[in-house]
């Protein structure tokens, strides 16, 4: 009997725990004007500072894909 009841009870307990975590720690809503301001500031930089700043501003899916198969920027030609 415990095998029949235990599985569904474990799923319900896990669901309640997940709900509590989700309610206590919601993801913040990003302010679009702050993002655009930071992006404009990053665009004004030059050299490696610009590359680093723009890399930090990437959406999560692009950053994840970049980490999986990194593209190394070419060294500037002399």
UniProtKB/TrEMBL annotation:
**Biased composition annotated in UniProt, kind: Low complexity:** 67-78
- Among the Pfam families in the record, one is FixH
Q: Report the source organism.
A: Hydrogenophaga luteola
Residue ranges of the region described as Disordered: 55-78
What protein does this entry describe? FixH family protein
